[in-house]
Fold histidine--tRNA ligase.
Amino acid sequence: MLRVRATRDRKLSYGDGRTVNLGGRALGPSPISVSYHPVASLQETLMGKYGEEAKLIYELQDQGGELLALRYDLTVPFARYLAMNKITNMKRYHIAKVYRRDNPATTRGRYREFYQCDFDIAGQFDPMIPDAECLKIVHEILSDLQLGDFLIKVNDRRILNGIFAVCGIPESKFVTACCTVDKLDKVPWEEVRGEMVGEKGLSPEAADHIGEYVQLHGGLELIERLLQDPKLSQNKLAKEGLGDMKLLFEYLTLFGITGKISFDLSLARGLDYYTGVIFEAVLLQQENEHVEEPVSVGSVAGGGRYDGLVGMFDPKGRKVPCVGVSIGIERIFSILEQRMKASGEKVRTTETQVLVATPHKHLLAARLKLISELWAAGIKAEMLYKKDPKLLKQLQYCEDTGIPLAAIVGEQELTDGVVKLRDVATRVEVDIPREKLVDEIRRRLEP
Amino acid sequence: MLRVRATRDRKLSYGDGRTVNLGGRALGPSPISVSYHPVASLQETLMGKYGEEAKLIYELQDQGGELLALRYDLTVPFARYLAMNKITNMKRYHIAKVYRRDNPATTRGRYREFYQCDFDIAGQFDPMIPDAECLKIVHEILSDLQLGDFLIKVNDRRILNGIFAVCGIPESKFVTACCTVDKLDKVPWEEVRGEMVGEKGLSPEAADHIGEYVQLHGGLELIERLLQDPKLSQNKLAKEGLGDMKLLFEYLTLFGITGKISFDLSLARGLDYYTGVIFEAVLLQQENEHVEEPVSVGSVAGGGRYDGLVGMFDPKGRKVPCVGVSIGIERIFSILEQRMKASGEKVRTTETQVLVATPHKHLLAARLKLISELWAAGIKAEMLYKKDPKLLKQLQYCEDTGIPLAAIVGEQELTDGVVKLRDVATRVEVDIPREKLVDEIRRRLEP
């Protein structure tokens, strides 16, 4: 379950200062949330705080003349890591921040500093088995998060390059043609054609020919049809790509997920490093009356095969084939946030199960003792940091923050060896013998 | 449970490239590990990988003339966050990377880029209640991790300043005297005295007088004694600090943790921003014959009260009192790593519960179908990415990576509607009806 508290600080230039509660990562038994902060800040922010240690502050302008840059994604660092460590075989996920010198658009979940979740499989394996697993994982994540209807578009760089070749485009223009085709999900074909002929200098005939192909999408039957295409079937790259695409669809059928997969020839993806299968998951327009205005978030996951990237970092150019996927977690968060805001659903920002409370003065010691017992039993307990808080204030705090139980000790309870356990929602209070309190709390908290 | 795989890359200048397996954060049902990578790299590393998107790469040398620096700790960013968002009350933890332009010493767990775990309580509360909770959390973490015997030293900046004052040190020299006193955990008093008199220009009498105080350590009885001290008791700051220290020890007694707490007047901590209680946890020399050479790691946690820091970032100087603690997770990791290496304990780097295997050729489809079923049931399953792997190779993989079960499907099993479930350790194989497989696996995996 992803839980988000929307306390944004739009004033920070680097990052957005949101507070995110990641369940199950509490350091201790107290319920505490994670807040995250930009990794880079103005130098002056750090000045005058660290005493003699200040000499260790990592200034970025001048590190012995090295030109530094912040990581742009998690794929290139992964490839470099494999090459530097001579690792030829690895499956891993990685959740970390990346940096883009972009114009932030917080409502659309676009920031200068943001988290990505990547999953990659590196190694020489039989064709399309790891690729199919990547798609299976994307399918699973998007289904589990209940983000609404989605579609995973799949294509292959070799098929695209084959199309460009049979349409008479010179190889030197493949990359730029790719970038233009990639715009087809945002603008109509006429505009893309215009850019091809105008800016990119392709002939109108070649552009029209490309247009016949890249507007196609479908499933296995389209793959079969293109394998029979008199021109494409003569192109080695296209044939390889289509053969692998067929294999991929067979595996996806066995995984039972072809219903949400579309072989889409307009998918190109902008990055240089893809060499084979590419894919991108998009959310489909929602028919949810609770959401006032439909959230436009574009793609929420994307990836593909990059068989050449590790070799670029290896001194001897040794290649390690890789396939991977990146989940746009910030975009997914902003969808979930807006949806919760629209539905008025209240989200708890702590996991506290019990508030340890006292009904009158001079009972701080009793609270400290009781909370220790609960913490020792692994119960998430909290108390107000006041010597003599009013009972009403303590109960109000439970209601405000959604704490389900209050364990109340007064003089009478101490004398009787009991604790008054209050159900915050129903306001029913029952005296529980102190030695049975932990068990009773556990019983109450059972789902 | 912290699990560490020691695959270090000592060649990376920025960070150490270790692979760390964080339990329970798998994106999908496949067992995958987290690897982490430096956030900054040479600009050239990122060149030629991103196509037209490359314009968004975050170069650090020149961002419109702003001088940037990487965060040095998580305390200053937290204080800034509170001020910018006008938050007066917050309890949170934060696990993230910080940066020091230091000489890395990987065996001692000291890096240029490393993780810190911070826990802070901000807000105006009754004295020493949040401070006591911070110490309770440190006590709990160090106990739970079973790092061996430890001691949490506690002192108060006000007591130190009071000592300096009654010893005749001018206020302008408090900070520098503090830094010198802080070295007492590494060098003997004679040396510290030498620095005070030589470099810092204190009189020998003042230094000797300071020495009488800062070599003291103890518990409640020492606090009581100092409260009666004819000079200290006349100093307002020292009296306040000692009064709060007494209160702190009362609360720590109720928490039952005073056995590992020492009121230590030599503890000074170098950072400027502390204003009250300060503390530091150190591991005590281990008497463990399995560890060949004792690990020298210094302190593993530290923190204190910083009531002025938020005000430094607030335009109107509004103060928010804060107390917090920082856990030296990298140091703790390096202790755990060395200990495991010394004991020969093998650490699993994946959480895979079942390997889906086939005994002969042409059964990839059967594996893909079966693994889908296990994933759907939430079982952590894996298979080799080969079309026709040899059975021996699959079983060897289980033994190498510690996978406890293998689910084997061959033609015979498919015909009979069963799966052969193999216990990897005992090599016992039993045919399980397919519809009962998930339940049987769950039963076998029960602790």
